[in-house]
Design goal:
With 151 residues, the protein is an all-alpha fold. The chain has helices at 3-29, 34-57, 61-74, 79-91, 95-108, 113-141. Helix 2 runs parallel beside helix 4 and helix 4 packs antiparallel against helix 5 (95-108). The protein is elongated. 25% of the residues are buried.
């Protein structure tokens, strides 16, 4: 997809989410239509997750994280939402949050290779960031040099 196509898709998914929310409210108001309410909630979840993927592809991880969090408020066991929120957290350099979501997803689906690969990616990225921070501190404070005692 081109960036403009991702943006158009994200806008359409946002509009669809508004529609699905309104339809769920309307269906809940009608008596005896629990199947309709369930279908509307499933549609809303799918639409929010699709918009989250668009936002990730557009380089908007904060928006993607928020969309996935909305899904997880309704369904804490949604592996796809955990995975996409972890991807957003990785893009934001929030490695602890990414790891927590990936570990939760791995517990729910232990055989999920994508989750395992993203967990390894998270560990590698956190390790590289720690190395970079260490090099920066060494450059700033001169690690390994003798302290100046000639005062």
């Amino acid at each position: 997809f081109k960036a403009s196509e991702w943006r158009a898709a994200a806008c359409k998914f946002a509009a669809a989410a508004d529609y699905a929310r309104a339809a769920a409210v309307g269906a809940a108001a009608a008596a005896g239509v629990s199947d309709s309410v369930r279908e509307q909630k499933e549609t809303l979840r799918a639409v929010l997750l699709n918009e989250a993927q668009c936002r990730l592809s557009l380089g908007e991880p904060a928006a993607a994280r928020e969309l996935c969090s909305r899904v997880l408020e309704r369904d804490a066991g949604c592996v796809k939402a955990l995975f996409r929120r972890a991807s957003a957290a990785l893009a934001l350099h929030e490695y602890g949050a990414a790891r927590a979501d990936l570990v939760a997803a791995a517990k729910l689906e232990p055989a999920n290779r994508a989750v395992r690969a993203k967990l390894a990616e998270c560990a590698d990225a956190a390790k590289e960031e720690r190395k970079a921070e260490r090099r920066l501190c060494e450059a700033m404070f001169g690690a390994g040099k003798e302290p100046n005692t000639h005062a």
